[in-house]
Amino acid sequence: MTDHPFRFGTVAGRAPDAGVWTGLARRAESLGYATLLAPDTLGTFSPFPALAAAAAATTSLRVGTYVLSRDALGVSYVTVNAQFMDAFAPVVERLAGT
């Protein structure tokens, strides 16, 4: 990533399938966005696997959650998924070539 005084991010959550989602992540990266955030809302992919797929499909895009529906999902769901993301981080880094 080049050195910029500030970076831009975008929020996305809706895609008809995983191929379109990863294409959206690649397009955001190619347009110069530094960050892709995914919400945890009805009608969107679960943010944890979606963000893992976006990170694996890109080389420098940072990913994160925009909101988490903790009350709807429960604390244990959020905790376990966050642990999975942490455990898979080395695999995502290898796939992304970082």
Could you characterize what this model shows?
- Helix 1 (18-30) packs across helix 2 and helix 2 packs parallel to helix 4 (75-96).
- Helix 1 (18-30) links the parallel strand 1 (9-11) and strand 2.
- The chain has one domain.
- The chain is mainly α and 98 residues long.
- Helices cover 51% and strands 11% of the residues.
- It contains four helices and three strands.
- Strands 1-2-3 form a three-stranded parallel beta sheet, with helices on one face.
Order of helices and strands: EHEHEHH
The total beta strand count reads 3
* Terminus-to-terminus distance: 11 Å
Largest sheet: 3 strands, parallel
Low-confidence parts, pLDDT < 50 over ≥5 residues?
Answer: none
Helix content: 40-55%
- What's the alpha carbon Rg, rounded to whole Å? 13 Å
User: Which class of secondary structure composition applies to the elements?
Assistant: mainly alpha
| Spatial order of strands in the largest sheet | 1-2-3
Structure in a nutshell:
With 98 residues, this protein is mostly helical. Helices cover 51% and strands 11% of the residues. The chain has one domain.
